[in-house]
Amino acid sequence: MKYNTVKLGDYLYIKGRIGWKGLKKSEYLSDGEYRIINGESLTKEGIDWNKAGYITQERYLESPEIMLEPNDILITKDGTIGKIGYVEEIEKPTTVASGIFVVRNIKPLKINTRFIYHFLTSSYFKRFIKMRTEGSVIPHLYQKDFVELDFPLPDITLQCKIVGILDAIEKKIRVNSEINDNLLQQASAIYQAWFEDYILYDGSLPSKWRQGTLADIANVTSGKRPPVKSAEKTDTAVIPLVGAASVMGYTTEANHTDKILVTGRVGTHGVIQRFNSPCWTSDNTLVITSNFYEYTYQILQRIDYSSMNRGSTQPLITQKDMNKVSILIPDQETLHDFETLVGQLMEQYQANILENNKLAEIRDALLPQLMSGELDVSDINI
User: Fold this and answer.
1) Which of 169, 175, 171 is closest to 348 using CA atoms?
2) What angle do CA 81, 359, 233 make, to 5 degrees?
3) pLDDT in tens, 53-107
Protein backbone atom coordinates (compact mmCIF):
# COMPACT_ATOMS: atom_id res chain seq x y z
CA MET A 1 0.00 0.00 0.00
CA LYS A 2 1.50 3.35 -1.03
CA TYR A 3 0.85 6.40 1.11
CA ASN A 4 0.48 9.99 -0.04
CA THR A 5 3.58 12.11 0.43
CA VAL A 6 3.31 15.55 2.05
CA LYS A 7 5.72 18.20 3.29
CA LEU A 8 6.51 17.94 6.99
CA GLY A 9 6.26 21.70 7.44
CA ASP A 10 2.60 21.69 6.32
CA TYR A 11 1.60 19.73 9.41
CA LEU A 12 4.14 20.65 12.07
CA TYR A 13 5.28 23.64 14.07
CA ILE A 14 9.08 23.40 14.19
CA LYS A 15 10.85 25.96 16.35
CA GLY A 16 14.22 26.54 17.97
CA ARG A 17 15.64 29.48 19.81
CA ILE A 18 16.52 32.42 17.57
CA GLY A 19 18.79 35.22 18.72
CA TRP A 20 18.81 33.89 22.26
CA LYS A 21 21.86 34.47 24.37
CA GLY A 22 22.96 31.10 25.68
CA LEU A 23 23.04 30.37 29.37
CA LYS A 24 26.26 30.58 31.32
CA LYS A 25 26.92 27.80 33.82
CA SER A 26 26.55 30.36 36.59
CA GLU A 27 22.95 31.07 35.50
CA TYR A 28 21.74 27.51 36.10
CA LEU A 29 19.93 26.99 39.38
CA SER A 30 20.16 23.84 41.50
CA ASP A 31 16.35 23.71 41.71
CA GLY A 32 13.37 25.86 40.92
CA GLU A 33 9.99 26.22 39.22
CA TYR A 34 11.27 26.69 35.67
CA ARG A 35 13.11 23.90 33.88
CA ILE A 36 15.25 23.81 30.77
CA ILE A 37 16.02 20.75 28.65
CA ASN A 38 19.44 20.57 26.97
CA GLY A 39 21.14 17.97 24.78
CA GLU A 40 22.37 15.96 27.77
CA SER A 41 18.74 15.53 28.87
CA LEU A 42 17.94 13.59 25.70
CA THR A 43 19.16 9.97 25.74
CA LYS A 44 18.54 6.84 23.69
CA GLU A 45 15.62 6.15 26.00
CA GLY A 46 14.11 9.62 25.52
CA ILE A 47 13.98 12.51 27.99
CA ASP A 48 15.87 12.12 31.25
CA TRP A 49 14.11 14.68 33.42
CA ASN A 50 16.69 14.19 36.18
CA LYS A 51 19.24 15.88 33.92
CA ALA A 52 17.07 18.95 33.29
CA GLY A 53 18.41 22.28 34.51
CA TYR A 54 16.60 25.13 36.24
CA ILE A 55 16.47 28.79 35.29
CA THR A 56 14.89 32.00 36.51
CA GLN A 57 11.37 33.03 35.48
CA GLU A 58 12.88 35.95 33.58
CA ARG A 59 14.99 33.66 31.42
CA TYR A 60 12.10 31.24 30.91
CA LEU A 61 9.80 34.02 29.63
CA GLU A 62 12.32 35.20 27.02
CA SER A 63 11.14 32.60 24.46
CA PRO A 64 7.39 31.98 24.78
CA GLU A 65 7.28 30.22 21.39
CA ILE A 66 9.18 27.21 22.80
CA MET A 67 7.50 26.80 26.15
CA LEU A 68 6.84 23.06 26.13
CA GLU A 69 3.40 21.49 25.95
CA PRO A 70 2.29 17.85 26.38
CA ASN A 71 2.88 15.82 23.18
CA ASP A 72 5.72 18.04 21.99
CA ILE A 73 8.62 16.22 20.33
CA LEU A 74 12.19 17.35 20.97
CA ILE A 75 15.12 16.77 18.63
CA THR A 76 18.72 17.89 18.99
CA LYS A 77 19.97 20.08 16.13
CA ASP A 78 23.53 20.76 17.35
CA GLY A 79 26.26 18.53 18.80
CA THR A 80 24.97 14.96 18.76
CA ILE A 81 22.34 15.44 16.06
CA GLY A 82 18.99 13.67 16.04
CA LYS A 83 18.42 12.58 19.63
CA ILE A 84 14.64 12.39 20.11
CA GLY A 85 12.38 12.89 23.12
CA TYR A 86 8.61 12.82 23.53
CA VAL A 87 6.95 15.05 26.14
CA GLU A 88 4.11 13.09 27.71
CA GLU A 89 3.32 15.55 30.48
CA ILE A 90 4.66 18.76 31.98
CA GLU A 91 5.11 18.90 35.75
CA LYS A 92 6.75 22.33 35.75
CA PRO A 93 7.01 25.14 33.18
CA THR A 94 9.75 23.94 30.83
CA THR A 95 11.67 25.31 27.87
CA VAL A 96 14.60 24.08 25.77
CA ALA A 97 18.19 25.16 25.22
CA SER A 98 19.39 26.55 21.90
CA GLY A 99 20.55 23.17 20.58
CA ILE A 100 17.04 21.66 20.45
CA PHE A 101 14.08 21.94 18.09
CA VAL A 102 10.52 21.74 19.41
CA VAL A 103 8.26 19.83 16.99
CA ARG A 104 4.51 20.31 17.56
CA ASN A 105 1.50 18.89 15.73
CA ILE A 106 -0.66 21.72 14.29
CA LYS A 107 -3.23 19.46 12.57
CA PRO A 108 -4.16 16.83 15.20
CA LEU A 109 -7.27 15.75 13.29
CA LYS A 110 -5.16 14.76 10.29
CA ILE A 111 -1.99 13.47 11.88
CA ASN A 112 -1.32 11.44 15.05
CA THR A 113 1.49 13.01 17.07
CA ARG A 114 2.92 9.62 18.01
CA PHE A 115 3.04 8.78 14.30
CA ILE A 116 5.28 11.83 13.83
CA TYR A 117 7.46 10.70 16.73
CA HIS A 118 7.91 7.22 15.25
CA PHE A 119 8.69 8.71 11.83
CA LEU A 120 11.43 10.83 13.40
CA THR A 121 12.98 7.71 14.95
CA SER A 122 12.88 5.77 11.65
CA SER A 123 15.88 4.79 9.54
CA TYR A 124 14.52 7.07 6.78
CA PHE A 125 14.84 10.12 9.00
CA LYS A 126 18.23 8.98 10.33
CA ARG A 127 19.49 8.76 6.74
CA PHE A 128 18.09 12.23 6.12
CA ILE A 129 20.03 13.58 9.12
CA LYS A 130 23.21 11.85 8.02
CA MET A 131 22.89 13.25 4.50
CA ARG A 132 22.35 16.80 5.83
CA THR A 133 25.23 16.74 8.33
CA GLU A 134 27.86 14.41 6.82
CA GLY A 135 31.14 16.19 6.18
CA SER A 136 30.19 19.26 8.23
CA VAL A 137 32.85 20.66 10.53
CA ILE A 138 30.09 21.57 12.99
CA PRO A 139 27.03 19.37 12.26
CA HIS A 140 23.76 21.31 12.42
CA LEU A 141 20.14 20.77 11.41
CA TYR A 142 18.18 23.72 10.06
CA GLN A 143 14.49 24.50 10.29
CA LYS A 144 14.20 24.70 6.51
CA ASP A 145 15.43 21.10 6.27
CA PHE A 146 12.38 19.93 8.21
CA VAL A 147 9.87 22.11 6.43
CA GLU A 148 10.66 20.70 2.98
CA LEU A 149 11.13 17.07 4.04
CA ASP A 150 8.83 14.59 2.25
CA PHE A 151 6.67 12.68 4.70
CA PRO A 152 4.59 9.51 3.99
CA LEU A 153 1.11 10.09 5.40
CA PRO A 154 -1.57 7.36 5.53
CA ASP A 155 -5.07 8.26 6.68
CA ILE A 156 -5.59 8.87 10.39
CA THR A 157 -7.08 5.40 10.99
CA LEU A 158 -4.01 3.66 9.60
CA GLN A 159 -1.75 6.05 11.50
CA CYS A 160 -3.41 5.02 14.75
CA LYS A 161 -3.00 1.32 13.94
CA ILE A 162 0.70 1.78 13.16
CA VAL A 163 1.15 3.76 16.37
CA GLY A 164 -0.64 1.02 18.34
CA ILE A 165 1.81 -1.63 17.09
CA LEU A 166 4.94 0.45 17.73
CA ASP A 167 3.76 1.87 21.05
CA ALA A 168 3.01 -1.64 22.36
CA ILE A 169 6.64 -2.61 21.73
CA GLU A 170 7.95 0.59 23.31
CA LYS A 171 5.68 0.13 26.33
CA LYS A 172 7.14 -3.32 26.99
CA ILE A 173 10.66 -1.93 26.64
CA ARG A 174 9.79 0.86 29.07
CA VAL A 175 8.25 -1.56 31.60
CA ASN A 176 11.36 -3.77 31.47
CA SER A 177 13.55 -0.71 31.99
CA GLU A 178 11.50 0.36 35.01
CA ILE A 179 11.77 -3.15 36.47
CA ASN A 180 15.53 -3.04 35.96
CA ASP A 181 15.78 0.33 37.70
CA ASN A 182 13.98 -1.24 40.66
CA LEU A 183 16.27 -4.29 40.62
CA LEU A 184 19.33 -2.02 40.71
CA GLN A 185 17.84 -0.12 43.66
CA GLN A 186 17.18 -3.39 45.51
CA ALA A 187 20.75 -4.58 44.93
CA SER A 188 22.15 -1.26 46.15
CA ALA A 189 19.92 -1.33 49.25
CA ILE A 190 21.10 -4.85 50.12
CA TYR A 191 24.73 -3.77 49.76
CA GLN A 192 24.15 -0.77 52.02
CA ALA A 193 22.34 -2.86 54.63
CA TRP A 194 25.01 -5.58 54.72
CA PHE A 195 28.25 -3.68 54.20
CA GLU A 196 27.55 -0.14 55.41
CA ASP A 197 24.89 -0.59 58.13
CA TYR A 198 26.06 -4.10 59.14
CA ILE A 199 22.53 -5.30 59.87
CA LEU A 200 23.70 -8.92 59.87
CA TYR A 201 25.96 -8.12 62.81
CA ASP A 202 23.76 -5.86 64.98
CA GLY A 203 25.11 -2.69 63.39
CA SER A 204 28.77 -3.35 64.23
CA LEU A 205 31.66 -3.94 61.83
CA PRO A 206 32.70 -7.61 62.19
CA SER A 207 36.24 -8.02 63.51
CA LYS A 208 37.08 -10.64 60.87
CA TRP A 209 36.42 -8.18 58.01
CA ARG A 210 39.45 -6.20 56.83
CA GLN A 211 40.49 -3.20 54.81
CA GLY A 212 42.14 -3.87 51.46
CA THR A 213 42.26 -2.59 47.90
CA LEU A 214 40.26 -3.29 44.76
CA ALA A 215 43.22 -5.32 43.45
CA ASP A 216 42.57 -7.85 46.22
CA ILE A 217 39.25 -8.95 44.67
CA ALA A 218 39.35 -7.76 41.05
CA ASN A 219 41.53 -7.55 37.96
CA VAL A 220 41.73 -4.24 36.06
CA THR A 221 42.87 -4.00 32.42
CA SER A 222 42.51 -1.47 29.60
CA GLY A 223 40.46 -1.75 26.43
CA LYS A 224 41.98 -1.56 22.96
CA ARG A 225 41.45 0.21 19.67
CA PRO A 226 38.98 -1.79 17.53
CA PRO A 227 39.97 -3.25 14.14
CA VAL A 228 36.88 -1.73 12.49
CA LYS A 229 34.38 0.88 13.67
CA SER A 230 30.87 1.37 12.31
CA ALA A 231 28.25 3.74 13.70
CA GLU A 232 25.49 1.29 12.72
CA LYS A 233 25.25 -2.49 12.54
CA THR A 234 26.31 -3.97 9.21
CA ASP A 235 26.45 -7.54 7.86
CA THR A 236 29.95 -7.93 9.34
CA ALA A 237 30.07 -5.32 12.14
CA VAL A 238 27.66 -6.79 14.67
CA ILE A 239 29.75 -6.77 17.87
CA PRO A 240 28.97 -3.87 20.27
CA LEU A 241 31.84 -1.41 20.58
CA VAL A 242 31.88 -0.21 24.19
CA GLY A 243 32.93 3.33 25.03
CA ALA A 244 33.36 5.10 28.37
CA ALA A 245 29.63 5.62 28.92
CA SER A 246 27.72 3.54 26.36
CA VAL A 247 27.86 1.38 23.26
CA MET A 248 29.42 3.75 20.72
CA GLY A 249 29.08 1.64 17.59
CA TYR A 250 29.85 -1.82 16.23
CA THR A 251 32.89 -3.78 15.12
CA THR A 252 33.73 -7.16 13.56
CA GLU A 253 35.17 -9.11 16.49
CA ALA A 254 35.14 -9.28 20.28
CA ASN A 255 38.00 -8.77 22.72
CA HIS A 256 35.80 -9.97 25.60
CA THR A 257 33.37 -12.85 25.84
CA ASP A 258 33.53 -13.09 29.62
CA LYS A 259 31.48 -11.33 32.32
CA ILE A 260 32.94 -7.84 32.69
CA LEU A 261 32.38 -4.41 34.18
CA VAL A 262 33.45 -1.40 32.09
CA THR A 263 34.12 2.19 33.10
CA GLY A 264 35.75 5.20 31.48
CA ARG A 265 39.54 5.55 31.47
CA VAL A 266 39.67 8.82 29.52
CA GLY A 267 37.01 11.54 29.42
CA THR A 268 33.76 10.31 30.98
CA HIS A 269 34.20 8.76 34.43
CA GLY A 270 31.87 7.04 36.86
CA VAL A 271 29.48 5.28 34.46
CA ILE A 272 29.63 1.54 35.19
CA GLN A 273 28.48 -0.76 32.38
CA ARG A 274 27.74 -4.49 32.71
CA PHE A 275 28.40 -6.96 29.89
CA ASN A 276 27.91 -10.70 29.78
CA SER A 277 28.05 -11.28 26.02
CA PRO A 278 30.68 -10.73 23.28
CA CYS A 279 31.80 -7.10 22.95
CA TRP A 280 34.84 -5.00 22.14
CA THR A 281 35.98 -2.60 24.87
CA SER A 282 37.59 0.50 23.34
CA ASP A 283 40.88 2.07 24.32
CA ASN A 284 39.20 4.77 26.43
CA THR A 285 37.85 2.19 28.90
CA LEU A 286 38.97 0.17 31.90
CA VAL A 287 37.76 -3.42 32.13
CA ILE A 288 37.17 -5.03 35.52
CA THR A 289 36.69 -8.75 36.15
CA SER A 290 36.09 -10.42 39.50
CA ASN A 291 34.81 -13.63 41.07
CA PHE A 292 32.77 -11.27 43.26
CA TYR A 293 31.11 -9.52 40.35
CA GLU A 294 28.09 -8.02 42.15
CA TYR A 295 30.11 -6.84 45.15
CA THR A 296 32.66 -5.24 42.83
CA TYR A 297 29.87 -3.58 40.83
CA GLN A 298 28.51 -1.95 43.99
CA ILE A 299 31.98 -0.73 44.99
CA LEU A 300 32.55 0.81 41.55
CA GLN A 301 29.24 2.68 41.89
CA ARG A 302 30.48 4.35 45.08
CA ILE A 303 33.98 5.51 44.11
CA ASP A 304 34.72 9.25 44.06
CA TYR A 305 36.13 9.35 40.53
CA SER A 306 36.67 13.12 40.56
CA SER A 307 39.41 12.69 43.18
CA MET A 308 41.23 10.22 40.89
CA ASN A 309 41.33 12.28 37.66
CA ARG A 310 44.79 12.85 36.22
CA GLY A 311 45.05 15.85 33.92
CA SER A 312 42.61 18.69 33.34
CA THR A 313 42.32 18.88 29.54
CA GLN A 314 41.56 15.17 29.14
CA PRO A 315 40.91 13.65 32.59
CA LEU A 316 42.51 10.22 32.98
CA ILE A 317 42.18 7.31 35.40
CA THR A 318 44.81 4.57 35.24
CA GLN A 319 44.75 0.88 36.11
CA LYS A 320 47.09 1.69 38.98
CA ASP A 321 44.63 4.26 40.34
CA MET A 322 41.80 1.73 40.28
CA ASN A 323 43.86 -1.04 41.82
CA LYS A 324 44.72 1.17 44.81
CA VAL A 325 41.08 2.05 45.65
CA SER A 326 40.54 1.28 49.33
CA ILE A 327 37.69 -1.19 50.00
CA LEU A 328 36.19 -3.26 52.78
CA ILE A 329 36.73 -7.00 52.33
CA PRO A 330 34.20 -9.16 54.20
CA ASP A 331 34.67 -12.84 54.96
CA GLN A 332 34.29 -15.31 52.10
CA GLU A 333 31.00 -16.76 53.34
CA THR A 334 29.27 -13.36 53.50
CA LEU A 335 30.61 -12.44 50.07
CA HIS A 336 29.32 -15.68 48.57
CA ASP A 337 25.90 -15.16 50.20
CA PHE A 338 25.73 -11.64 48.75
CA GLU A 339 26.71 -12.87 45.29
CA THR A 340 24.01 -15.54 45.42
CA LEU A 341 21.23 -13.23 46.61
CA VAL A 342 21.99 -10.24 44.41
CA GLY A 343 23.02 -12.47 41.52
CA GLN A 344 19.46 -13.84 41.38
CA LEU A 345 18.08 -10.30 41.07
CA MET A 346 20.56 -9.44 38.35
CA GLU A 347 19.77 -12.59 36.36
CA GLN A 348 16.32 -11.09 35.85
CA TYR A 349 17.98 -7.75 35.05
CA GLN A 350 20.08 -9.42 32.33
CA ALA A 351 17.06 -11.28 30.94
CA ASN A 352 15.20 -7.96 30.64
CA ILE A 353 18.18 -6.40 28.86
CA LEU A 354 18.24 -9.24 26.33
CA GLU A 355 14.48 -9.00 25.80
CA ASN A 356 14.67 -5.24 25.28
CA ASN A 357 17.47 -5.67 22.74
CA LYS A 358 15.35 -8.15 20.82
CA LEU A 359 12.27 -5.93 21.03
CA ALA A 360 14.29 -2.96 19.79
CA GLU A 361 15.49 -5.02 16.81
CA ILE A 362 11.91 -6.02 16.00
CA ARG A 363 10.72 -2.40 16.31
CA ASP A 364 13.54 -1.09 14.15
CA ALA A 365 12.83 -3.72 11.49
CA LEU A 366 9.08 -3.08 11.50
CA LEU A 367 9.20 0.71 11.64
CA PRO A 368 10.37 1.53 8.08
CA GLN A 369 8.05 -1.11 6.59
CA LEU A 370 5.07 0.29 8.50
CA MET A 371 5.94 3.87 7.67
CA SER A 372 6.36 3.19 3.95
CA GLY A 373 3.21 1.09 3.61
CA GLU A 374 5.21 -2.02 2.71
CA LEU A 375 3.34 -3.77 5.54
CA ASP A 376 -0.42 -3.40 5.20
CA VAL A 377 -2.11 -2.95 8.60
CA SER A 378 -5.55 -1.93 7.31
CA ASP A 379 -7.15 -5.25 8.36
CA ILE A 380 -5.60 -5.26 11.84
CA ASN A 381 -7.88 -4.35 14.76
CA ILE A 382 -6.06 -2.63 17.64
Assistant:
1) 175
2) 50
3) 999 999 899 888 889 999 999 999 887 788 899 999 999 999 998 889 999 999 9
CA 134 to centroid of chain Cα atoms: 23
Considering only CA atoms, which of 339, 328, 331, 244 is closest in space to residue 286? 244
36 neighbors 94 (Cβ within 8 angstroms):
yes
Quick check: 84 and 102 in contact, CB under 8 A? no
Phi/psi of residue 56, nearest 5 degrees: -75, 160
Q: CATH fold of 4-153, please?
A: Adenine-n6-DNA-methyltransferase TaqI; Chain A, domain 2 (3.90.220)
| Higher per-residue pLDDT: 175 or 127 | 175
Fold of 210-329: Adenine-n6-DNA-methyltransferase TaqI; Chain A, domain 2 (3.90.220)
- Which residue type sits at 325? V
Nearest partner of 69 among 88, 52, 50, 49, judged by Cα: 88
Question: What phi-psi label fits residue 105: left (phi over 0), alpha (psi between -120 and 50 degrees) or beta?
Answer: beta
What is 204-238 written as a DSSP string? S--TT-EEEEGGGT-EEEE----S--BSS--SS--
Please choose, from the candidates 55, 57, 74, 54, the residue with its C-alpha nearest in 3D space to the C-alpha of residue 14.
74
CA 202 to chain centre: 40
pLDDT at 311: 60
Using CA atoms, how far apart are residues 176 and 184, in angstroms rounded to an integer?
A: 12
